[in-house]
Write a structure and sequence with these properties.
about 150 residues, alpha+beta, four-stranded antiparallel β-sheet, 8 strands, globular
């Protein structure tokens, strides 16, 4: 039965009948999208995709360095290397119909820069900012979709 369901789901994905967020929802997973943004006051160039919150944070320049999409099971975690030789780890601690609890960690060469647990509204976004990077800081908008 499970094999037949897996094959059917694979066929639906191939034909485009089911989107990835539906798959994440059906499987008890959360689709986490992360952007790694370099925010600085050294220049005034701003990527259009981040202009909305760049200036609200007090920075004149923002450039998207990286964008990642991670599908994470409840009680699971995934890691990705980010700018400055750092490692970002996102864990989905729990989720319900209204919100997901995420643990976000940024590990650098000298230890942890960030280690926080947050509650994000379903299909919502949070911003983690802090580690210094090339005359500015790294800002990480993180979306949790399911």
């Amino acid at each position: 039965m499970n094999r037949a369901l897996t094959l059917l789901l694979g066929l639906c994905l191939t034909l485009g009948w089911v989107g990835t967020s539906s798959v994440a929802e059906a499987a008890g997973k959360v689709k986490v999208k992360v952007q790694v943004v370099h925010a600085t006051k050294a220049h005034s160039k701003v990527d259009d995709k981040v202009a909305k919150y760049c200036r609200r944070l007090g920075y004149t320049g923002c450039k998207i360095l990286q964008s990642e999409e991670l599908v994470i099971s409840t009680k699971g975690k995934k890691s990705v290397n980010i700018a400055g030789g750092r490692k970002l780890t996102v864990a989905v601690l729990s989720r319900d119909a209204k919100r997901a609890r995420l643990r976000v960690q940024i590990q650098g060469k000298k230890g942890k820069h960030v280690d926080t647990t947050v509650s994000v509204k379903r299909n919502g976004m949070l911003i983690v900012a802090g580690p210094r990077h090339k005359g500015g800081i790294l800002v990480l908008p993180i979306w949790a979709r399911y």
